[in-house]
Amino acid sequence: MADPKGFLNHGREVAKTRPVAERVKDWNEVYVPGSLLPIISKQASRCMDCGIPFCHNGCPLGNLIPEWNDYAYREDWAAAQERLHATNNFPEFTGRLCPAPCESACVLGINQQPVTIKNVEVSIIDKAWETGDVAPQIPERLSGKTVAVIGSGPAGLAAAQQLTRAGHTVAVYERADRIGGLLRYGIPEFKMEKRHINRRIEQMRAEGTRFRTGVEIGRDLKATDLKKRYDAVVIAAGATTARDLPVPGRELKGIYQAMEYLPLSNKVQEGDYVAPPISAEGKHVVVIGGGDTGADCVGTAHRQGAASVTQLEIMPRPNDERHPVNQPWPTFPILYKVTSAHEEGGERIYSASTTHFEGDEDGNVQWLHLSEVEFVDGRLTSKPGTERKIPAQLVTLAMGFTGTDRENGLVDQFGLQLDERGNIARDAEFQTNVPGVFVAGDAGRGQSLIVWAIAEGRSAARGVDRFLTGASDLPAPIRPTDRALAV
Q: The 4Fe-4S ferredoxin-type domain covers which part of the protein (predicted)?
């Protein structure tokens, strides 16, 4: 352990963000560069000698959190990054993007603020890149087996890196023009600058992983042809079918899915556009959906110069603190969250349901009509007399995803079976009903967190390795049936 009295001597202190007036004028990460390292040793010292580290259960990767907290406290950065990488291929991604269920399960969190596990994690990996401790791990020998990975999000990249290091020849197929999946084109630059992805890709290239961009399996290349070329296939195509809002006026211009809107700003940062084809500049923006994707739309609209930003959520406003009965420790609670995007302005409306949209004579959306809702006999019901309208010249739908893409033919061409939720079904080894075809990430689990995606990729890699060689030493942190620690 670190300092036995660290949690008594030091309070929780998190990363500092840049002033709102400054950061909304650029697309750089919101945090003050270098502000964590001076405080991180004290923060790591708050990790208790708790006996049973429930943070291990909160994290599906099984991260060795007390161990690398101890190393960070002692400023042994080389040992800290080794422990960090023992369970996590991409801690610079999770350290920036994961909502940290490990912190919700922290034993200190029973009666104090939990350890800043996420901040310690990102400090360790950023220091490791700075000192050159992150190096390619080239396999000593090749197996002669080939694997295709469909999708280059966190699940696909984790599976590909694990299998490459096991000695297999791995090619990653990505339908977009750049590698990264939603990390590249779903996460705004202000949450994670894409240089973090780029240097991981270069590490993977040096290890031997091959990348094929602009190739959509099912359309550009038939799934059956892909299977003939490779000894095994890992489907990590995500759950990209967005939930829609079938209300009157949905056909009006100016209403977009979040994943139609967000990638365009990322493409501006990549140099593909001078200005995004869809912009919030000077417009009244409404974001439907109160989750992280909705918050990403809010922050993007602020940076584009929106006249106003309103975020709607159909569920009631969550509690500020954990409810001891309904959401007891160490479960992952649903709490009222103020993200960096919310700090930048805008209005948040809870218990609100969109009834219809209203447009102008040219077919452009101008107004959103809503009503308040409440639970009646366990069902959300509109409250009479609460109808009103708000200005809406740009609307983004951020209401989650319902499953993997069925339109490109990938599922049908492989002949894959789906489970009752519409996800690709798999067995205990992450293998589908088609021998040699495996599935990892949201395509098999459904919409989930980045930390679960990486855990899925690592676990599926073990299944593939065993299929190809008859045995495997690769770790498998989760089973396909495992779920988050929640009520």
A: 38-69
Same structural domain for residues 271 and 386?
Answer: yes
Ranges assigned E (strand) in 258-351: 284-288, 308-313, 347-350
> Do 152 and 218 share a structural domain?
yes
Identify the domain containing residue 114 by its residue range. 5-131
Closest CA to 48 of 9, 101, 85, 98: 9
- Give the Å distances, CA to CA, from 207 to 63, 162, 200: 23, 10, 11
Rounded-to-integer distance, Cα 71 and Cα 24, Å? 36
pLDDT of residue 485: 79
* Residues 171 and 218 placed together within one structural domain of the fold: yes
Interatomic CA distance for residues 158 and 315, integer angstroms: 34
**Residue 258: inside a domain, yes or no?**
yes
pLDDT along the chain (487 residues), means of 10: 87 96 97 95 94 92 95 96 98 97 96 96 98 96 98 98 98 98 97 98 98 98 98 97 97 98 97 97 98 97 98 97 91 95 98 98 98 94 96 98 93 96 96 98 96 98 98 97 85
- Cβ 392 vs Cβ 282: under 8 Å: no
Question: How far, in Å, CA of 286 to CA of 298, rounded?
Answer: 9
Whether 292 and 202 share a structural domain:
no
Q: Which two tokens stand for residue 368?
A: 């959103």
pLDDT of residue 270: 96
**Rounded distance between C-alpha atoms, residue 72 and residue 81, angstroms:** 9
Q: How many domains does the chain have?
A: 3
The alpha carbon of residue 248 and the mean position of all alpha carbons in its chain are separated, in whole angstroms, by: 32
Per-residue model confidence (pLDDT) at position 2:
67
pLDDT in the model for residue 1: 61
Question: Which backbone phi and psi does 257 adopt, to 5 degrees?
Answer: -70, 150
Distance of alpha carbon 464 from its chain centroid, rounded? Answer: 24
Locate 263 and state its tokens. Answer: 């990638």
Token look-up 């610079």 returns 92
Residue 308 lies in a domain: yes
305 with 416, same domain: the answer is no
| Single residue among 84, 108, 131 that ends a domain in this structure | 131
| pTM greater than 0.90 (yes/no) | yes
